[in-house]
Write a structure and sequence with these properties.
Length: 188
């Protein structure tokens, strides 16, 4: 059985993490704190105990596994309440241009700003800057093309924000495009 003290430390690590925290990160932190070797089995036991604790109706939050890590999130019953708070903070929302830019980056990553602008047909400096500030995208190196432009990709915060474990969970184009939105006749 897992040490309750270790369980509380893991709970504190998950709670204090802005993004989901992985098991290896937890192990590294515990090893540094206690000067001992902790194993995955011990950490998973503690995580199960924490999940069980927060599964009761006494809590408005739950421990969720996402993006290969763990994070505390509000239970579905309270989403509308939290949504009201978000509505009041709506001035911090992304613009339509930023959302378009984010979608392009998510589906075409890694991608340069020039490629984003070619797809959108307009300058994307401001949108890319806002997405970097909000940490929804990150710089992923430089392209091997002349001028070595910066490559952009989605960040771990993007994965957390959209509750994704992998980019394969993004909706596919066929799921989004409706037949009534197509032009012309379908060729068979």
């Amino acid at each position: 059985m897992s040490n309750p003290n270790i369980t509380r430390h893991i709970e504190a690590l998950v709670f204090s993490s802005v993004q989901s925290i992985g098991v290896q990160e937890i192990i590294l932190a515990l090893n540094a704190i206690f000067n001992t070797e902790h194993i995955e089995t011990q950490v998973f036991e503690s995580i199960d105990q924490i999940k069980e604790k927060y599964s009761h109706d006494d809590f408005a939050i739950e421990l969720v596994h996402l993006n290969n890590g763990y994070q505390f999130l509000t239970k579905k019953d309270y989403h509308e309440t939290v949504n009201q708070l978000q509505l009041h903070r709506s001035k911090k929302k992304l613009s339509q241009a930023a959302m378009e830019t984010l979608a392009i980056i998510a589906y075409r990553q890694p991608i340069t700003k020039l490629e984003i602008e070619q797809i959108r047909g307009v300058n994307s400096d401001y949108s890319v800057q806002r997405l970097l500030e909000k940490e929804l995208i990150s710089i992923d190196g430089k392209a091997e093309t002349p001028g070595r432009p910066i490559l952009y990709s989605t960040s771990p915060l993007f994965m957390d924000y959209f509750s994704l474990n992998s980019l394969n969970q993004l909706p596919q184009l066929k799921d989004i495009v409706k037949e009534e939105n197509t032009v012309g006749e379908n060729a068979e």
